[in-house]
Fold this sequence. Notes:
This protein is an alpha/beta fold and 447 residues long. The chain has eight helices and 22 strands. It has helices at residues 92-111, 176-184, 216-229, 281-295, 314-318, 331-343, 364-367, 404-416, and strands at residues 12-15, 18-19, 25-29, 32-37, 44-52, 56-66, 117-118, 132-140, 145-149, 194-199, 204-209, 231-236, 244-247, 253-257, 267-271, 302-306, 323-328, 349-353, 372-375, 396-401, 420-428, 438-445. The strands form four sheets. The chain has an eight-stranded mixed β-sheet, with helices on both faces. It has a six-stranded mixed β-sheet with strand order 1-5-6-4-3-2, with no helix packed on it. The termini are far apart. Keywords: 4Fe-4S, Iron, Iron-sulfur, Metal-binding, Methyltransferase, rRNA processing, S-adenosyl-L-methionine, Transferase. It holds the Pfam family TRAM. [4Fe-4S] cluster binds at residues 76, 82, 85, 165.
Amino acid sequence: MSRSNSVPSTPFEAHITDLGHDGRGVARVDGKAVFVSGALLGEHVLARLRKRHRHFDEAEVVELITRSPHRVEPRCRHFSQCSGCSLQHLDAASQIAAKQRVLAENFERIGKVTPQAWLEPLTAEPWGYRRKGRLSVRNVTKKGRVLVGFREEQNPRFVTEIQQCEVMHPALGPKVGLLADLLNGMDAVNDIPQIEFAAGDDLMALVFRHMQPLSERDLAALAAFGQQHALAIYLQPGGTSSVHPLWPENPRLAFRIGSGDARFEDVELEFQPLDFVQVNAGMNQLMMARALELLDPQPTDRVLDLFCGLGNFTLPIARRVAEVAGVEGEHGLVERAAQNAARNGIANARFHVANLFEDQRAADWARAPWDKLLLDPPRAGADQVLAYLPHKQTSRIVYVSCHPASLARDAGILVNQHGFRLASAGVMDMFPHTSHVESIALFERHP
C-alpha cells in the first residue's frame, strides 16, 4: 500500500462539528473532513482512522471524551455492527431535527429556494415499524452456522448475525434468529442468498430466494415453519415473476388506509410480497392525511398522480374529486391498482402504464388538463416529467420525496421555470433510527 493511502492505527482526538447526511459525525482534522461513525454533533472523541480518500477520510469512535446530551443508549445490541440503523444512539427529537436540517440545507444549496412555511415534522411509533425489507443469508463454514440479518455497517460484504430486530414488524422482528436455525438444518443451506419480508395488516409474508430446486424435505420444513409462526411462505426460484406461495395456498396481503381516521374515508389495498409499499404503516397513515390536507381536493377537481404504484395516494384522492389518473411504470403495480379501485367501489380512477423517466408528453394523460398534481417519485426525482408538466391550468402540486437532493433540484425547476412558489415543506420520519429523509412539499402557482 502506498504511503498516501496507508491508514495509521494511532487514535486521534476530534471535535464533531456537524452530523453528516448519513448519520456520521463530521470533524475537520488538519483541514480535511473526517466522517466518524458513532459520533454525534458537539462531542469530543478519540477516533481511529479506517479509510483515506482524496477529499475526506473515514474513522470510528474509540472513546467518548465528551458526550452529547442528546446521546441515548441504543435499544438493539447489534446497533454498532448492523447497517439497518445508524441513529439509535441519538434521541428521537434530535433525529427528526437533524432530518429537517438536511432538507433545509438541500433546498438552500441545490434548489436555491426556501419554503414560505415549515410544516411540523410527522413522527409515529419508532420501534417495530418496518413492514418491508430484505434479509441477507450466508452460510459461514468457519463459524459452522448460517447468518441471517442486514449487511454489516463497516463491511457490506459480511452479514450481521442478529437474533432479533427492534425496528422490524413484531410478527418477524423477534424471530430472525429462528430463521437462521431453520436454514441451518436445510439441504439448501448454501443456495438461499436472501429472504424478503412484507407485512399486511393481518399477515407477514417471507419470500425465500433459492438458486437451486428445493428438496421435498426443505419444502416441508419451510411450510411447517410458516404454519408454526403464522407466516405466509413464498418461493422465488428465478426473477420476480417466479414468486409463488408455498403455504398457505392462497395468502392474502392487504393494508387499509384511513381506518378509524375521520379525516378521510378508508380504502384497502391488496399487494404482492415484492410490490413497493410504504415501509411504515403508521407513517403512511399520517402522510396520507397531510397529503390530502395540502392538496385540498375539491369535488370538481381533476387530479394527476404520478409514480402512483398500487394507488396508495390515488384511491383516497378519488374519494374526494371528480376524476383522478394514476401513472406508473411497472405493469403489475398498475394492474393491481386498477383491481384495488374496483375492489373499493371507486369508478373515477384511471391508471396508465408509462415509463416516467422517458418523454411521455404525447400521451393522452400528459396532454389533458389537470387542476392538481401529486408526485411521489423514487430517489431520482421527477425532473424529466417536469420538462413537460405541469400545464398552466395546474394550480397546486404536492410532492412526496424519499431523497432531499432530488426534491430540492425539482423545487428549483418548479419555482424558477414553472412559476410556482414553495408554500410549505417538512419531513416525515418514515425510517426512524436511520438517516433516511422522507419529506413532503406544497407548491402553489402564483396568482
